[in-house]
């Protein structure tokens, strides 16, 4: 029987869940369309208002105004095509060089969509104003609208420069830091630091719950649709529904799991009345791709992907793997200082209402190190950096169980070096700690 122990998510899950960033309610592809619609509306309205309420001679010839507006319109639509092409190249490059799962990280960048929106707005607004130049042979040039076009043109140039500067984000160091920052943000929002726990929380954190003690299963919920990945749970809503029915909801699937036909999603224990399936389903948000919103494993997954791809024979770049391990070690050190047993939530009265799967410390270690250790077994540089990371973790964590798990991984690392194709001298070199991989050796620590 699975057991769930310890309080998590800052003990009161409701306030914490409210702090989690929600997915964008509006699709990003709509952003340029909104810019275009608004600019077109203003472009046909503002010149009319100028003509009706602010009639004056701007001193600009009709031919000059038409030439300026035509040049801006034609130039901006060309620039829009260039930026769109650059965006595709960035996405394709990240997928090939680093990991296919990084595509959405770049493709969902709001800066790209807002920049395209401003470019399209400049194009449509210029065309709209051009229609009112010398309207009905009046030889009138809308001055305020002309200044607006010039302002949009200047803003477009600034955004284009910013996008070109953003190409530096494709450097591997920046990519790794962006992924690491997402992981650090998720850890900070989801988990409570061990040194911040109150005595009452620590006491309740030692409790264990057996599913058989929660009462009979009175309701189950299964998934029947095309494959999707669980992105997040609406924990507040689940707790509220369980409280109303005096029940305990046990989630069988966790965030990051892929749902296929007839997958068991959850079980309801001890409910007085059956909960509406539609209400339960709306609390489970799914999508085509995983996100880091309630899934601290995902940033580590991306970092590991980059590391093992760098270790492939086709690329053979162990230094990139070492840089990825730098970020992985930092995330694990932060996880080691937090209460990871965040597998259940209580209502406002302190009654257990929700149990959901969460990764353990051992799960994080397996995810972070197993594949890198396997694919980097014949790299002295990677073995030295892995040893340094594990020794640093053993020094930074305080819980005995976590220290023991790290020490067990150090033994596995020794076995990996022993079974590698390295020569005896290289194996001895690989057993040394080195935060740089190859650069600054530390003596291997021995217990007294």
Commentary on this structure:
This protein is of the alpha+beta class and 448 residues long. The protein has a domain at 30-170. Helices cover 56% and strands 10% of the residues. The protein has 16 helices and ten strands. Strands 3-7-5-10-9 form a five-stranded mixed sheet. Strands 6-4-8 form a three-stranded antiparallel sheet, with no helix packed on it. Strand 9 (344-346) and strand 10 form a beta hairpin. It is flat and about 85 Å long. It starts with a strand and ends in an 18-residue tail after the last helix. The relative contact order is 0.11. Mean pLDDT is 83; it is low at 1-25 and 202-206.
Layout of helices and strands, plus pairs?
Elements: E1 3-5, H1 13-19, H2 30-53, H3 62-97, H4 103-107, H5 110-130, H6 143-165, H7 172-190, H8 199-205, E2 208-210, E3 217-223, E4 228-233, H9 235-244, E5 248-251, E6 258-259, E7 263-269, H10 277-281, E8 284-287, H11 297-310, H12 318-336, E9 344-346, E10 352-355, H13 361-375, H14 380-396, H15 400-419, H16 424-430
Parallel strand pairs: 5-10
Antiparallel strand pairs: 1-2, 3-7, 4-6, 4-8, 5-7, 9-10
Helix pairs in contact: 2-5, 3-5, 3-6, 5-6, 7-11, 7-12, 11-12, 11-13, 12-13, 12-14, 13-15, 14-15, 14-16
């Amino acid at each position: 029987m699975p057991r769930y122990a310890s309080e998590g998510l800052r003990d009161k899950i409701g306030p914490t869940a409210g702090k989690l960033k929600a997915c964008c309610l509006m699709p990003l592809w709509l952003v340029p369309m909104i810019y275009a619609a608004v600019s077109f509306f203003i472009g046909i309205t503002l010149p009319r208002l100028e003509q009706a309420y602010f009639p004056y001679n701007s001193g600009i010839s009709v031919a000059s105004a038409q030439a300026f507006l035509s040049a801006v319109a034609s130039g901006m639509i060309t620039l829009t095509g260039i930026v769109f092409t650059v965006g595709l190249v960035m996405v394709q490059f990240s997928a090939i060089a680093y990991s296919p799962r990084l595509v959405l990280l770049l493709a969902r960048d709001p800066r790209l969509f807002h920049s395209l929106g401003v470019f399209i707005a400049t194009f449509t607004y210029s065309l709209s104003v051009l229609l009112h130049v010398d309207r009905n042979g009046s030889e009138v040039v809308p001055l305020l609208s002309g200044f607006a076009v010039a302002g949009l043109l200047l803003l477009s140039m600034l955004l284009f420069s910013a996008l070109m500067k953003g190409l530096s984000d494709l450097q591997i160091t920046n990519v790794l830091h962006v992924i690491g920052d997402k992981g650090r943000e998720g850890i900070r929002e989801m988990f409570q630091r061990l040194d911040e726990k109150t005595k009452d929380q620590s006491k309740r954190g030692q409790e264990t719950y057996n599913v058989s003690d929660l009462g009979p299963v009175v309701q189950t919920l299964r998934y029947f649709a095309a494959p999707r990945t669980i992105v997040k749970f609406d924990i507040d809503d689940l707790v509220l529904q369980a409280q109303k029915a005096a029940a305990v909801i046990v989630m069988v699937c966790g965030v990051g799991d892929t749902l296929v036909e007839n997958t068991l999603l959850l079980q309801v224990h001890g409910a007085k009345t059956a909960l509406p399936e539609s209400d339960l389903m709306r609390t489970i948000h799914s999508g085509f791709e995983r996100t880091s919103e309630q899934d601290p494993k995902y940033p580590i997954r991306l970092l590991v992907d980059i590391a093992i791809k760098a270790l492939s024979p086709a690329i053979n770049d162990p230094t990139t793997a070492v840089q990825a391990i730098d970020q992985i070690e930092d995330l694990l050190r932060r996880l080691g200082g937090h209460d990871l047993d965040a597998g259940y939530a209580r209502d406002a009265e302190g009654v257990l209402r929700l149990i959901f799967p969460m990764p353990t410390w051992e799960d994080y270690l397996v995810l972070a190190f197993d594949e890198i250790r396997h694919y980097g077994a014949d790299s002295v540089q990677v073995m030295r950096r892995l040893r340094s990371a594990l020794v640093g973790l053993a020094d930074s964590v305080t819980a005995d169980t976590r220290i023991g798990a790290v020490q067990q991984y150090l033994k596995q690392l020794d076995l990996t070096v022993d079974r590698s194709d390295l020569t005896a001298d290289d194996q001895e070199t690989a057993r040394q700690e080195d935060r740089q991989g190859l650069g600054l050796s530390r003596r291997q620590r021995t217990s007294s």
